Amino acid sequence: MSYIQIGTVDRGKIKIIFGSPENYKTLFDTKEGAKLKSIKYEYKGIKLCDPIEKIIDLLTPENTKFDKFNYLEYKPGTAIEDIETRIFIYLYTGKIIFMKIFDEEFFVNDELKIWNEITEEIIKKYKFYFEEEDADEDYYLSKKYKEFVLCVDFGNGRIKKYTDFKQRILGYNFDDQNNSLRNFFKDEIDDYLKCKNLKEIYYSLEKSRTLDVDILKREVTGQLDDYKFTFDLLTRNIKNIDKIWVYKFLKFKIIVVVKDSGYFFLYRI
After folding, report:
1. S-S: 155 plus which of 71, 75, 116, 162, CB 3.0-4.6 Å?
2. 51-57: which pairs have CB atoms within 8 A and are 24 or more residues apart?
3. The dihedral of CA 47, 53, 54, 56: what is its sign?
4. How far apart are CA 122 and CA 109, in angstroms?
């Protein structure tokens, strides 16, 4: 089944997009003759909530790392000065739940282009606000569009070319963390040796702090007690459960004494 998403109206032309309406938001500007403007949570063909399969071929050990929050963090290579674009995949679901975009060639619509000044009109229209009243935050949240965050430069020299203390658009966050993150208090199954998927024992593996990702092998690994678990990165289905044999060796202090005659003696302490 197809859906129709109406995009921008420009000089009498209506842009029609065919596809699922998921992850699309439409903004209405009544001051400009009911002109329609749209924000699509998409960057270079990558959409918020896309599965990891969509970008797996882009991931390499050089541009992707597994961070301390158990996110797979992918850097596509764009940046504004030293502020890099980053895309985060939630390991539990295998979906993209957070995108931090800093790219002067990209914009969500004409009104919210990078380096446009942030006016009171824009703040009111999109219902932007700082997280705390009068807080010196570097981003605006929106009361109307919960997944959209506007990153701000304050013209204070953080970006070298702007020192006039005017607020400008620096980048965008597409954020589905509030909808996607899960609070875990137990595993889905009691016997972890019977697990079939990462989700079933995610709580224990996360708590153990042993989770890791091998991009080249496309595997997720973790350890519980004396067992190593290996999951497929794409499906998160179990591949192997291996017993880890731990060998304990006595530690000896070795003293080597060399005699003039060439003989030596070993002393074990």
Report:
1. 162
2. 51/94, 51/95, 51/96, 52/89, 52/94, 52/95, 52/96, 52/233, 52/234, 53/234, 54/96, 55/87, 55/96, 56/218, 56/233, 56/234
3. positive
4. 12
- Give the mean pLDDT of 97-108: 96
3-state helix vs strand vs coil in the chain, percent to 5: 15, 40, 45
Q: φ, ψ for residue 41 (rounded to 5)?
A: -75, 70
pLDDT at position 48 over 50 = yes
- CA 55, 60, 65 angle in degrees (round to 5)? 95
Higher pLDDT, 252 or 184: 184
Residue in 229, 217, 235 with CA at minimum distance from that of residue 189: 229
Residues 125-147 have a mean pLDDT of: 82
Contact by Cβ (8 Å): 200, 187:
yes
Q: Compute the Cα dihedral for 109, 111, 114, 120 and give only its sign.
A: negative
Q: Is the pLDDT of residue 188 over 60?
A: yes
Question: 127 in the Ramachandran plot: left (φ > 0), alpha (ψ -120 to 50) or beta?
Answer: left
Assess whether pLDDT exceeds 50 at residue 17.
no
Q: What are the CA-CA distances from residue 206 to residues 11, 42, 66, 191, 223 (Å)?
A: 53, 29, 13, 16, 10
Mean pLDDT of the chain: 81
Q: Say whether pTM exceeds 0.70.
A: yes
Burial 147-164 (b: 16+ CB within 10 A, else e): bbbbbbbbbeeebeebee
Name the least confident of 25-34, 141-150, 213-222. 25-34
Which residues, other chains included, contact 65 with Cβ-Cβ below 8 Å and sequence gap of 6+? Answer: 72, 73
